[in-house]
Amino acid sequence: MQMLMPEPQIFVERTLALIKPDVVDKEEEIEDLILRSGFLIIQKRKLHLSPEQCSNFYADQYGKVFFPNLTAYMSSGPLVAMVLARHCAVSYWKELLGPSNSIKARRTHPNSLRAIYGTDDLRNGLHGSLSVSSAEREIRFMFPEAILEPIPAGQRARDYLNLYVKPTLLAGLTALCKEKPADPMTWLADWLIEHNPNKPRLQHQITEEEQQ
């Protein structure tokens, strides 16, 4: 019986993480846990939001009983905003955070970040985007200069691999077989950096006469 193997895909997803004002002093410790959990920190900044900015960020919570306390809490001091990336980043980050109520998190998910760093339902230590679409909106809010390009998938991803990745990798592996270096991994890494097809190239070499 022929086995049907899934077609290769490119898995890249980003989510927004916030270290809230009352646990900013644990920034390095929390970042270490994030990195050891398989995330990349793509961007990071420390900022102090005004109550108006917090209201805009949590616009979907407007009108709820806790909204005034939420905006007061989030604007009470500096916070750390991070863009995290990995396969299924949104769901993995939510899983690492645990329940939004830190009291409940300590009962049901004692190893979660909110159980460790949160205090109660309001002051739960950290924030995470609820979905991919909300992550895009929140990243744009915290990082207005960020460029969020659509992630290639399906035929677009296969076309990209066939056009840009496979030819360069094949040439590198062929050169590796001919060279037979003592440290093949490092040699191949250096070769790929040197022969990166997207590497900027000068139109012409600047001669000594032109420099004078």
From TrEMBL:
Q: Which UniProt keywords apply?
A: Cell projection, Cilium, Cytoplasm, Cytoskeleton, Developmental protein, Differentiation, Flagellum, Hydrolase, Kinase, Spermatogenesis, Transferase
Which Pfam family, giving just one, matches this sequence?
NDK
Provide the Nucleoside diphosphate kinase-like domain boundaries.
12-150
Compartmental location:
Cytoplasm, Cytoskeleton, Flagellum axoneme
Which top-rank group of organisms is this from? Eukaryota
Q: Which GO terms describe its cellular component?
A: cilium
GO biological process, any: cilium movement
InterPro entries per record: Dpy-30_motif, NDK-like_dom, NDK-like_dom_sf, NDK_H5, Nucleoside_diP_kinase
Gene Ontology molecular function terms on file: hydrolase activity; nucleoside diphosphate kinase activity
Q: Which family does it belong to?
A: Belongs to the NDK family.
Subunit info? Component of the axonemal radial spoke complex 1 (RS1), at least composed of spoke head proteins RSPH1, RSPH3, RSPH9 and the cilia-specific component RSPH4A or sperm-specific component RSPH6A, spoke stalk proteins RSPH14, DNAJB13, DYDC1, ROPN1L and NME5, and the anchor protein IQUB. Interacts with IQUB.
Its recorded name reads Nucleoside diphosphate kinase homolog 5
Q: Which organism's genome codes for this protein?
A: Calonectris borealis
